Amino acid sequence: MREERHSHLAPVLTNLGAWLLAVIWVSPLLYAFWTAFHPASYAARFDLFAPWTLENFERVWHAAPFVRYFANTFMLVTLILACQLVICTLAAYAFTAFPFRGSNVLFMLVLLQLMIMPEVLLVENYRTLNTLNLLDTILGMGLPYLASAFGIFLLRQTFKSIPKELEEAARLEGANALQILWRVFVPIAKPTYIAYALVTVSYHWNNFLWPLVVTNSVDTRPITVGLQVFATVEQGVDWSLVTAATLLSVAPLLIAFLLFQRQFVQSFMRAGIR
Amino acid sequence: MKTSRNVIYGGLLLLPAAVLLWTFTYQPIVATILHSFYSTPRGRRSSVFIGLDHYETMIADPVFWKAVTNNVIYAATTVPLSMGIALAMALFINAKIRGQAAVRMSYFTPTVLPMVAIANIWLFFYAPDYGLIDQILRPFGLGGNNWLGNRETALPALIVITIWKEAGFFMIFYLAALQQISPSLLEAASLEGANAWQRFWRVTFPLLMPTTLFVSINAVIGAFRLVDHVIAMTKGGPDNATTLLLFYIYQVGFGFWDTGYAAALTVVLLVVLMLIAVFQFGYADKRIHYR
User: Fold this and answer.
1) Region A134-152: what's the mean pLDDT?
2) N or C, where is chain A less crowded by C-beta within 10 Å?
3) Partner-chain contact A121 B20, CB within 8 Å
4) Chain B touched by A273 (CB under 8 Å)
5) What is the pTM of this model?
6) Does some domain include residue B20?
7) pLDDT at B32 > cutoff 50
8) Are the C-beta atoms of B111 and B166 separated by less than 8 Å?
9) Residue B204 near residue B181 (C-beta atoms within 8 A)
10) Which domains does chain A show, CATH number per domain?
11) Over 70: is that where the pLDDT of B171 sits?
12) Is B284 a residue whose pLDDT tops 80?
């Protein structure tokens, strides 16, 4: 009975709460957006009728080598994604199709990397890269991440759900181990690959601490480190510039996210259900 | 015959991953523990075995204890608050509200941004006098706050932005879990006269328990792993009020170049992460079922 009395009020309150939270959540970004598109003199005082300008972006663009930073990030992310897809696929396939004594223990060992990620071990990993003479290189920046426990885990889950009969059928047709992987396992796991790719791309596009430690020059710095170098120099001088630089640096990922919002959210959901 | 074939094929397929994981995860773990017993090489003096000296230094080091305390406070506030908000967000979106896509987008957008970018935006908001927050507070006579420069407010300021960034991410997991709950369970509860409040606490919340455990473990790991905002906003200051453990390791290792001591500090962080792992594999996994 009580239920029915509340039935008109409850949806209104839910909508109100949801929207209030949404406004609170998005307003910092909107304000940053507003600041970046207005002259510096308005940064500290909001005025609805302030003139719009692209000047901040223009100055930022010329003040720091953003093209280079973007190119570095792009190369880093491409390298990591391509290698991860291959390496994790092979490992997940081994765990699924070729179990041997001790392979479960090995899998548990792999999962350790979910807890202890390479950046936690940054002092030792820095030492290793120094020994390999790979400091301040894009390869060195990507190397610790090329084998991903998360990727292996996710793909193993998907591979395990594939019926044995499909594998057997391909074998009877004379396919070898790698052909079975390529023709049976990989096509079925396509949604998992897309989900994993989106998660890993956004992780490494945003990664900061390890690249900060490893890079030392414009030629290798990814956009996150480049932004920080720029902001540290400009800090307290001109907030419009810093905000413009920040928006500029997140623009590619943000635009991609806004365009493919559904896929992003669904991919993160898929990667999250274990 | 089959087993030996499996060993060869499996071994070959695992080789690339094994080499990389050994080089950048297992080997450094072993090396970290080893180096924590050796002095830092300086100039011509190579490192020598010093036993537990670094650990004795650590116990007497007030900055280390400050970092541990800060990190515990940081985890104990960011994890439950961001998860609570995340659950509210997921429930809102699952409740078929108006403009669902727009609402979901505003919850989720901070999550796709890098922490450094978020730190730079919020540096501006937290700026004394002309920052956004002070501008809002000034009409109420509460202006003139140096949020990041004050020992009392600097860590809470970082906690706020962490919650702002992470809640939307955790929401996704709750949303996924909510959509798996069979509506018939909730209908059955309604038929038995349970109101919305009771339905949430007696049906939905218990069914979300595996997700809550899973998310909280990842959130705790995150609280010990992500220090980008500390580097970008406060550098651990003022007076170490915002020094977190990994930031201190970074500072000792790459600011003071005391790699031996940094190794000992890393061992502490590894122990913390191992304890979380033991908890997950030992306790939580009995409830969360991996296939």
Assistant:
1) 94
2) N
3) no
4) yes
5) 0.90
6) no
7) yes
8) yes
9) yes
10) 64-272 (1.10.3720.10)
11) yes
12) no
Q: What is the 3-state secondary structure (H, E, C) of B150-212?
A: CCCCHHHHHHHHHHHHHHHHHHHHHHHHHHHCCHHHHHHHHHCCCCHHHHHHHHHHHHCHHHH
Query: Which residue range forms the structural domain that includes residue B79?
Result: 46-286
In a domain, B37, yes or no: no
Q: Nearest-CA neighbor of B200 among B214, B215, B190, B213?
A: B190
pLDDT digits (tens, 9 = 90+) for A176-185: 888 999 989 9
Compare CB distances from A115 to B113, B120, B221 and report the shortest one's residue. B221
Count of structural domains within chain B? 1
In a domain, B28, yes or no: no
- CATH code of the domain covering residue B262: 1.10.3720.10
Share of chain A above pLDDT 70, in %: 92
Whether pLDDT at B124 is above 90: no
Six-digit token pair at A214?
Answer: 């490893």
Q: Which amino acid is at A124?
A: E
pLDDT band at B12 (very low <50, low <70, confident <90, very high): very high
CA distance A56 to A61: 8
Domain presence at residue B12: no
The answer to whether residue A1 scores a pLDDT higher than 90 is no
